[in-house]
Write a structure and sequence with these properties.
- This protein is mainly β.
- It has one domain: Roll (Carbonic Anhydrase II), CATH 3.10.200.10.
- The strands form two sheets. Strands 1, 2, 3, 4, 5, 6, 9, 10, 11, 12, 13 and 14 form a twelve-stranded mixed β-sheet that branches. Strands 7-8 form a two-stranded antiparallel sheet.
- It is globular.
- Bound molecules: zinc ion.
- Zinc ion binds next to β6.
- This is Alpha-carbonic anhydrase domain-containing protein.
- InterPro entries: Alpha_CA_prokaryot-like, CA_dom, CA_dom_sf, Carbonic_anhydrase_a-class.
- Keywords: Signal.
Amino acid sequence: MAPTFKILSAAAIITLAAACAKHDNHQSNFQKRQVLTPGGRDEKDWAYPESYDWGSINSNYSLCQMGTQQAPIPLALDQGLSQRHRPDFVGFPSNVTGNFYNWGYGPAYTIAHEDGRFNTLPSMTFDNKTVYLRGWHIHAPADHTVGGVRSRAELHYVMVDSAGHEAAVLALRLDPGQTPSPFFSELPKPLLGFNETDQIMNQTLNPRLPLEAVDFFSEFWTYQGSLTSPPCTEGIRWFLARTILFISHEQMQALLLVSQFSARAEQQVWLHQINA
Ligand SMILES: [Zn+2]
């Protein structure tokens, strides 16, 4: 999970009437295109390949080094699966509107909502708490391993509280299989590259499709974790679906083509209270 979503702030974007040549063939899909102004994507003083060293880069990143609930952590079936904190998706919509973009490491999407009105976003509940889907992004390779096996990619549904603060992440592992994923089939073709700062505006998609593919988290691991990028803020409840979301080989190749390495080194299990 990464805190780069402020790249979407209205102040940082300008509307462009001109089409990007690369997407001319797909113009009929677009109602409006916007482009980030130069510098609109945050300059970073950290990088994923050096994630073991984030704590020494900046004093604001000390939790990355000395936190007690840092994510991701290795998971395994012999830890069992969670019987507690079960997510409930009653009323979760099958149609939302938002923006596609590339968060610099892979495909991402933010759901449109009125400023500050997070409680109008698709919601789920756990532990009598309601959290709201602000958007999603994809890491490649996966952040989490299960039994030492790392999937090719991992989809993160970022859930915020009613004030917009990150509260939970639904993590779904992605691997190549024989059948195209309906969820992936809804994404723009071609996908936006990691160097592209364009956003494709006002695009609808069905946010239930990935959840259906993993049986709405009927089996899952959960733990108390953190953001997986600086400043590594803790207090995030992680849910990792046991079921893998399979996409076709072609879809996986298209995904990897627009992705950059974005997996944080696995952290030592400490006070994460796995499944507890
Ligand atoms: Zn993430």
